[in-house]
Amino acid sequence: MPGVEVTVEGLSKSFGRANIWSDVTLTLPPGEVSVLLGPSGTGKSVFLKSLIGLLKPEMGSIVIHDTDLVRCNESKLYELRKLFGVLFQDGALFGSMNLYDNIAFPLREHTRKSESQIRDIVMEKMDMVGLKGDEMKLPGEISGGMRKRAGLARALVLDPEIILFDEPDSGLDPVRTAYLNQLIIDLNAQTDSTFLIVTHDINTAQTVPDNIGMLYRKHLAMFGPREVLLTSDDPVVAQFLNGRRQGPIGMSEEKDTAQAAREMAEVDELDGLPPIKPQLQATAGLPERKAVARRQKRVRDMLHTLPPAAQEAIRRSFGENGAPQERAQAVGAAPYGRPEDPTRTLPRVSPDDDPTTQLPQVR
């Protein structure tokens, strides 16, 4: 059974007089991997906290299993939170507990399972994230990457239908981030849960998700199939994906129109966007991601509503016969006529691997 659909309508959040974002509307398709991008300070983490009921929006709705989290009572909200698993930026592990007890904690708190049952579940999840054999280590004795994986194992123990990742690449070098990205895809293949990732990492945004959204200027500028944002010629997208200074995004807030125009004139001859990289596939030997076939049908149904560049990229990714080019990637042929992404074939992570502006609205 795939992860649950999450429908967000007209969501607005403020702290006092400071508006964070307004009228956020999107649908997280069941079982698919979605990424939320945006400049620092645009409220991406606030959005995650609103999804699980830790923050209460002033307006709008968040509907899961026909229940609105914004308006339900505390008892119902408590039950709905069990549908979520969350990987926090720092792993959020208890420093005085070993990894086994950290990962077992949700099971002991929220279930009546026996210690024997708990052990079976904990060992299964530790094996899934490549931490088998590290049960007795304390969080202070392991690397940042291992802490992330331990936090991910803990997020998985209740078999959540929705898994939220709050900047999983924070504090990791590019190599560990690449391993973690592959692990995320592998876990999606095994669980078929609905994933939402908040990140600043451009490689993650280019290679991991089925869908991408972008928060900008206190609203959700776009959410839809990954190809829409990755082929957009919008100046905000070009600046963000190229990681350059010139453009509408400033250091602490958006630049005024005149300044942005002067800077864009300086980079007029630069490429608007980096080349599209192929999406990561599950590691050989694991189940195929069920979300791939569901997404293919969903995207084909909306294809005529998308920008021409996105349509072309989607058709190429599906191949001539309409099937995604997974087989081509597996034997080394990259779609879009570009060199193969070197992170695509990374093996599953093991303990030894880690030594320590307005975009088109698509819904």
Task: Give a brief rundown of this model.
Residues 308-363 are annotated as: Disordered. With 363 residues, the protein is of the alpha/beta class. 36% of the residues lie in helices and 17% in strands.
SSE layout and pairing:
Layout: E1 6-15, E2 18-28, E3 33-37, H1 44-51, E4 59-64, E5 67-68, H2 74-81, E6 84-87, H3 99-110, H4 115-128, H5 144-156, E7 162-166, H6 174-191, E8 194-198, H7 202-207, E9 211-216, E10 219-225, H8 226-230, H9 235-242, H10 257-266, H11 290-302, H12 308-318, H13 326-330
Parallel strand pairs: 3-8, 3-9, 6-7, 7-8
Antiparallel strand pairs: 1-2, 1-4, 4-5, 9-10
Helix pairs in contact: 3-4, 3-5, 4-5
Tell me what the structure shows.
It contains 13 helices and ten strands. With 363 residues, it is α/β, with parallel strands linked by helices. The chain has helices spanning 44-51, 74-81, 99-110, 115-128, 144-156, 174-191, 202-207, 226-230, 235-242, 257-266, 290-302, 308-318, 326-330; strands at 6-15, 18-28, 33-37, 59-64, 67-68, 84-87, 162-166, 194-198, 211-216, 219-225. Strand 4 (59-64) and strand 5 form a beta hairpin. Residues 320-360 have low confidence and may be disordered. The chain starts with 5 loop residues before the first strand and ends in a 33-residue tail after the last helix. Among the domains are: 6-225, P-loop containing nucleotide triphosphate hydrolases (Rossmann fold, 3-Layer(aba) Sandwich); 235-266, no CATH class. The longest helix is centred in the middle third of the chain and has 18 residues, at 174-191. The strands form two sheets. The protein has a six-stranded mixed beta sheet. The chain has a four-stranded antiparallel beta sheet with strand order 2-1-4-5, with no helix packed on it. The radius of gyration is 20 Å and the shape is globular. 43% of the residues are buried. Helices cover 36% and strands 17% of the residues.
